[in-house]
Design a protein that fits this description.
The complex is a heterodimer of chains A (488) and B (231). Chain A is α+β, with helices and mostly antiparallel strands and 488 residues long. Chain A has 4 domains: 46 residues, no CATH class; 150 residues, no CATH class; 114 residues, DNA polymerase, Y-family, little finger domain (Dna Ligase, domain 1); 91 residues, no CATH class. In chain A, 26% of the residues lie in helices and 29% in strands. Chain A has 14 helices and 20 strands. In chain A, α5 crosses α10 and α11 packs across α12. The radius of gyration of chain A is 33 Å and the shape is extended. Helix content of chain B is 24%, strand content 28%. Chain B has a single domain, classed as P-loop containing nucleotide triphosphate hydrolases (Rossmann fold, 3-Layer(aba) Sandwich), CATH 3.40.50.300. Chain B has a 9-stranded mixed sheet, with helices on both faces. Chain B is globular, with a radius of gyration of 17 Å. Chain B has 231 residues and is of the alpha/beta class. In chain B, a hairpin with a 4-residue loop joins β9 and β10. Classes of the chains: A alpha+beta (488), B alpha/beta (231). At the A-B interface, α13, β13, β15, β17 and β18 of A face α2, α3, β3, α4 and β4 of B. β15 of chain A pairs antiparallel with β3 of chain B, so a sheet runs across the interface.
Chain lengths: 488, 231
């Protein structure tokens, strides 16, 4: 899908490339390139040899998918039930809505005109089933219309690839001599069913044929478009500070959200400057919210970051991440719920210090102490941590273990004395060792094992030390000692 | 909440400090804790032991230097006593802001702040704000001050905590057992200052205070500080 505005001329061969197993491969090509023999799926270096003037650009599958999702909602102008079909198509259930456009033929002309105004070229077809429409749109003629009883004859001359089959199945059918759908339909059902008894839907020609002819139902599941919530404030004179207008904007937006039963997780404030520039501030919440006071407070320190230039005369506030939010019963005695209070605290702290500063611990399956605990943003939904391991562990862990200088009492044993941060600690009591081996599926080869000791020094401070490696374990020189944590 | 805190037993026996129960630290107000050495985790252990088990989270605010020098909280060692919400900020002023924001929230078990050194932001006014906010919200607020001097502050209780040699291990005499701390309440609004040996009973989730054992480590700085007037 070419982006609007910078589409290359049609007579220039252009292809989009995607990363393949052996270097970039052609993802899609325009008409001039296809005429030059460029095929999708071939390697870019081979195609450059065929067509030296080929212009290569990188494909953007996520962007295409997002654009297609927007197009799905845009296509609701013709019928209320639309869905995305794979990575390159739309399916519209036009049952009962074609007469609004003056019949199916007129509707197809209207759709093609509208899409070409957007800069998109499309192959269109109308058929009684999804499968037949897919086949005719891609392999049939221009704007084919298939009557309700003419599916079989309309599909018969098309190649078997029009049945939405995998490449291997298509190849297999061609080797069997079944080149067209008509030839496939002529084979006895029992033979086909026995041959493809274990195949999945995408590799099963019989099921796909049944879908195309309507013997097997294939419902279209349409996505629900989220409503957009946006308020704006037009000003008579350019101003430099949006703060006085923010409470009214928040209040209006939250009233809209409440009336429709929604809450938002993001708010974007956009100011349109008189010199044509646009500046914006975004805040986020950890749970959907429509509390005007709370949302306004999230903007507290952020409005100063807007560069007002010579002033702005239009402010808009738009809700993003809109979710359904039902009214919940709070306490009879009044006062807010604790969970709600907490999510608001997280919102306030994240808005002030950034979402990465506010974290909660998560436990992971590991034996290596620093990997057991990770920190995730508190904005993300978290699950309660469960502790399975009841072994003695320090209450504080250093980010990076700090190296010690050690005086041994016995070889391979605990230290008798160690120097950490230029202070000498004499070991009075110790427990250990607890051996923790490296995780070979994680660590680089050559990582040494660790022997952990819990030691108590002469003043009663308790530390967690470890010796990295053993004497003559073949993984480096003498073992080194580190301090990893402190006990309470 | 009140029923939990009343289950904590504070025992103080005999000697110069008899009758001076340190249980007032359980009040929902601002308490300051000064570790004997900057990286002593005993202070954090004492504070954690004073916060009763709860399903509500604890807000833990650290400035950059505290996190780097004295380590991060480590969940496998803390156990699942309460959920933790950690805020990592750079400046001491931001620690105070985040703590004050947390004290405004009803859904927290406690607020812990860690500040390294004596920053100018931590003035008498700042501590007074925290204390008043904690008393208004009814949330315990603990300020751990590492490498700091106990200068002017509005904290209602001020503790000096040092690690003591641990209790004997029940099975192995050579290994350290349950932690013990020397807890010195050197300034308190509600109760008489004093010095105790504190230990944490993990099974019953309570802190036991007992009179200091007359050994060499305690004999030096004892007594005089205990007589200091309460403000």
């Amino acid at each position: 899908m070419e982006r609007q505005g910078n589409a290359p001329p049609d007579d220039l061969p252009v292809a989009l490339a995607a990363e393949g197993a052996h270097g970039p491969v052609i993802h899609a090509a325009n008409r001039a390139a296809r005429l030059n023999g460029i095929r999708a799926g071939a390697r870019v270096v081979d195609m450059r040899a065929i067509c030296p003037e080929l212009h290569i650009d990188y494909a953007n599958p996520q962007g295409d998918r997002a654009a297609l999702d927007r197009l799905v909602l845009w296509a609701r102008r013709w019928c209320p039930w639309t869905a995305r079909d794979g990575t390159d198509g739309l399916v519209l259930d036009t049952t009962g809505s074609d007469h609004l456009w003056g019949g199916e033929a007129a509707m197809l002309v209207e759709i093609e005109t509208r899409l070409s105004l957007l800069g998109l070229s499309a192959g269109l077809a109308v058929a009684p089933t999804w499968g037949a429409a897919w086949a005719l749109a891609r392999h049939g003629g221009v704007r084919r219309i298939c009557p309700a009883d003419g599916v079989g004859p309309a599909l018969a001359p098309l190649p078997v690839a029009a049945l939405r089959l995998e490449a291997e199945t298509v190849l297999l059918l061609q080797r069997l001599g079944l080149k067209t759908i008509g030839a496939l339909a002529g084979v006895p059902r029992l033979a086909l069913a026995r041959r493809f008894v274990r195949a999945e839907l995408a590799g099963n020609p019989l099921l796909r044929l049944d879908q195309a002819t309507g013997r097997l139902a294939e419902p279209v599941s349409s996505v629900q478009a989220m409503p957009r919530f946006r308020v704006q404030s037009r000003l008579a004179e350019p101003i430099l500070d949006p703060t006085p207008y923010l409470p009214a904007l928040c209040h209006d937006l939250c009233t809209q959200l409440r009336d429709r039963g929604y809450g938002c997780r993001r708010l974007q404030l956009v100011v349109y400057r008189t010199d044509g520039e646009v500046a914006s501030v975004t805040v986020a919440t950890s749970a959907p919210s429509r509390d005007a006071d709370h949302l306004r407070r999230l903007f507290d320190d952020k409005l100063e970051r807007i560069n007002p230039g010579f002033g702005f005369d239009l402010i808009t506030l738009e809700a993003g991440g809109v979710e359904r939010m039902d009214i919940v019963q709070t306490r009879l005695a009044g006062g807010a719920e604790e969970g709600l209070e907490l999510s608001r605290l997280i919102d306030r702290l994240s808005a002030r210090f950034g979402p990465r500063a506010v974290t909660r611990p998560v436990l992971r399956e590991s034996h290596v102490p620093e990997r057991v605990q990770g920190w995730t943003s508190a904005m993300a939904a978290g699950q309660a941590a469960t502790l399975a391991d009841r072994r003695d562990r320090p209450v504080r862990l250093l980010d990076t273990p700090e190296e010690l200088r050690v005086l041994y009492a016995v070889p391979e044993g605990p230290p008798a004395q160690f120097i950490w941060r230029r202070q000498t600690h004499r070991v009075a009591r110790y427990a250990g060792p607890e051996r923790i081996a490296p995780e070979w599926w994680h660590d680089r080869p050559g990582t040494r094992l660790r022997d952990y000791f819990k030691v108590e020094d002469q003043a009663g401070r308790r530390f967690w030390l470890y010796r990295e490696g053993l004497h003559e374990d073949g993984r480096g020189g003498d073992p080194r000692w580190f301090l990893h944590g402190m006990f309470d | 909440m009140t029923c939990i805190s009343s289950s904590i037993v504070a025992r103080s026996v005999s000697g110069a400090v008899s009758g001076a129960l340190p249980a007032t630290g359980l009040a929902k107000t601002l308490s300051e804790v000064f570790p004997a050495t900057a990286v002593d985790a005993g202070a954090a252990g004492f504070v954690l032991a004073r916060i009763p088990r709860s399903s509500l989270p604890v807000l833990w605010v650290q400035d950059r230097l505290s996190g780097k020098e004295a380590g991060r909280p480590y969940l496998p060692g803390l156990g699942a006593r309460w959920p933790i919400l950690r805020v990592d900020v750079t400046r001491p002023a931001d620690v105070l802001l985040a703590m004050e924001d947390g004290l405004r929230c009803k859904g927290l078990a406690a607020v812990i702040g860690e500040i390294w050194g004596d920053p100018p932001a931590l003035s008498f006014t700042a501590t007074k704000r925290l204390a008043l906010r904690a008393e208004a919200g009814g949330i315990a607020c603990w300020l751990i001050r590492r490498a700091a001097s106990p200068d002017l502050s509005a904290a209602r209780d001020r503790w000096r905590i040092a690690s003591l040699p641990s209790a004997p291990h029940p099975h192995d005499p050579a290994s350290p057992g349950a932690p013990r701390w020397q807890a010195e309440l050197f300034r308190s609004r509600q109760s008489r200052p004093g010095t105790w040996v504190a230990s944490y009973d993990r099974a019953a989730d309570r802190v036991d205070f007992s009179a200091p054992a007359p050994d060499r480590t305690l004999a030096e700085g004892d007594g005089a500080s205990g007589q200091r007037a309460a403000g």
